Amino acid sequence: MKFLIAAFLSAVSATAEMSPLAQRMIKRYQTEGPAAFNKNPNPNPPGGGVSPPPHLNSSKCEAMPIYGSFGPPYFVSDDVDNDTPGIQTTDGALCYDFRGLHIITAAMDYNMISPYTTCNSEVFVSSSVLETFIAPVDDLNDDPQWYYELDVSPSGAMWGGLSNNTLGNSSKCIASDGVCVEGLLSCSGLNEFEHGMIPVVQNLSHSDTPDEVFGWMLDLTIPWEFFAEEYRPKLVDGELVYHDKWRANFYRYDYFNNNTFDFELTAWSPTHDPSFHIPSKFGLVNLI
Asked: Phi, psi at residue 52, to the nearest 5°?
């Protein structure tokens, strides 16, 4: 049941390529090896229940540094009382351009596990996975009831859905057609979703020792077409203006010793609860 990402790269890369920022970030890991995880000049401050959710200012992709913008570390999400860093480091970047939101996540991982080869498989069950929960909001104090959940495994398989969570305090519909219906997003194959949303994964290894994999990277672009018209870019005086207020969280299932019963739940903004679905713990994101 254990697969290295390299086994799936040909299938994923046939329909999608990594973004320019992800390609620049990959080169850093290829040059510096695992030490690259500790080079982010803006490490993640404590978040979640012990401290307020973190606040992230995200720039356009062309201006994003190769060291990313959120993490390390991710914190143990189901630690009720503390902000405890995860055993294996995770960091990433969130940026945007005319195509959509770009989320690039790098996970140190010496024991990748994923048996999944089709989209909308339950990749969050007995599998390494990187998860994104995200929604536009009218005010950063809004805890969204409706948000997208996008979960990707090292095999490249992605589960995608629109969630309806009554723990949120804002019921504003965010869906592209203005009609929010909870459930799975339509897809085909390994990871091909509507509007050309196709996640790309790649193994992380030093260029001198390419067979010694120490983690994996996810490059996910969420096209603007997934969101309601009011949240899409608008052309004003010849320039695109972007909706600037978002709530988001980034999670990880991390397995150890090739054992599906030995795992750790971590998050950018820990929920301090066994569930990731706590909208009040979503981080605050401004597009600048």
From this structure: -60, 155
- What Å distances lie between residue 242 and 100, 101, 113, CA to CA? 10, 11, 37
Query: Which range, 19-28, 82-91, 144-153, is most confident?
Result: 144-153
| 21: Cβ contacts below 8 Å, ≥ 6 apart | 61, 64, 66, 93, 95, 102, 104
pTM: 0.91
Name the one residue in this structure whose structure tokens are 């994101």. Answer: 285
pLDDT digits (tens, 9 = 90+) for 138-175: 999 999 999 999 999 999 999 999 999 999 999 999 99
For residue 286, which of 140, 176, 70, 134 has the smallest C-alpha distance?
Answer: 140
Phi and psi dihedrals of 200, rounded to 5?
Answer: -125, 135
Task: Report the C-alpha gap between 35 and 116 in whole angstroms.
Answer: 30
| Rounded-to-integer distance, Cα 22 and Cα 108, Å | 16
pLDDT in tens, 179-234: 999 999 999 999 999 999 999 999 999 999 999 999 999 999 999 999 999 999 99
Q: What is the mean pLDDT of the chain?
A: 89
Neighbours of 178 (CB within 10 A): 10
Distance CA 258, CA 211 (A): 19
Torsion angle defined by CA atoms of residues 250, 88, 50 and 137, in that order, rounded to the nearest 10 degrees: -10
Helices (H) and strands (E) in the chain, counts: 2, 17
* CB burial of residue 95 (10 Å; 0-12, 13-18, 19+): buried
What amino acid occupies position 254?
D
C-beta atoms surrounding 135 within 10 Å: 26
